[in-house]
Amino acid sequence: MAILDWLPTKDRLSRFGLAVDVACLVCGSDSESRDRLFAACPFAMDVWNTVLSLCGTRCAALTWDQRLSWMVGNLKGKTFRRHLKLK
């Protein structure tokens, strides 16, 4: 659903005519969209940076599409499980 941009985000619901507050539910700023929730929101950026840091890699992508493209190109056939020390 996220890849196809079919998630019921506030910006999409608004475009369908529903009266909703479009502010991002997580940070309260900008319009809640797939890109905002998965890439542009400060909280999402912190999550991505933390997870990738734990896995010993970085990604400078700014949008969801850029991040998805990076993941497809760099993570195909790889797993981060070996990098994480889960107890």
From TrEMBL:
<dbReference type="Pfam" id="PF13966">
    <property type="entry name" value="zf-RVT"/>
</dbReference>
<dbReference type="InterPro" id="IPR026960">
    <property type="entry name" value="RVT-Znf"/>
</dbReference>
<feature type="domain" description="Reverse transcriptase zinc-binding">
    <location>
        <begin position="2"/>
        <end position="48"/>
    </location>
</feature>
<protein>
    <recommendedName>
        <fullName>Reverse transcriptase zinc-binding domain-containing protein</fullName>
    </recommendedName>
</protein>
